[in-house]
Task: structure prediction
Amino acid sequence: MTTLRRLAFLAMIAILSGREALAQEPAATDEKAWSFYASAYAYLLPGDEDYVQPTFTVDHDWLHLEARYNYEAKGTYSVWAGYNFSVGKQVTFEGTAMLGAAFGDTDGVAPGYKATLSWTKLAFYSEGEYLFDTNESSDSFFYAWSELTWAPVDWCRLGLVGQRTKVYETDRDIQRGLLLGFSFKRVDFTTYVFNPDDSSPTVVLALGVSF
Result:
């Protein structure tokens, strides 16, 4: 076999091998999968009527969509659209800037946010919004929920929690408490105890499922 034929033969093998390798690789795509999360927070209130606050979220790359009920006020729905972003490697920050509209017993518009700062087993999570009440401007209010947690193992976390809400009446502008959460595959369950120094603290039981 001449040198030229040998080179042509080797080139043909390389081309065929490259085609076979490309055929075995999955098609590249810039699209990321949709993710869904549903949660329900059961508020067990001392001296007041208990209620459930459900939330449903949808995320696709940078897009965030969300629907809530009983969050801004009882008997009130809210819908949200937002932009997801994240930075960092060892210390990570994940944030979502949102804009929402509330309707029902309370009507209004609200800019809001969600943010998580994480480092190894520690995490700080916060979500908040400022509701501009379109019926009564004096009822406009800043809502906030924050958690500082430590996860000794992947399936358990414990820490501190705080919230500011007008959904139910309380003597404290900012309620503080403790939390203990467990995870199993796609299911999360967390118990929150607000104002544990009170004779009758507020207990919140949260169940979440991702799919």
Notes: The chain is about 10% helix and 60% strand. The longest helix spans residues 3-24.
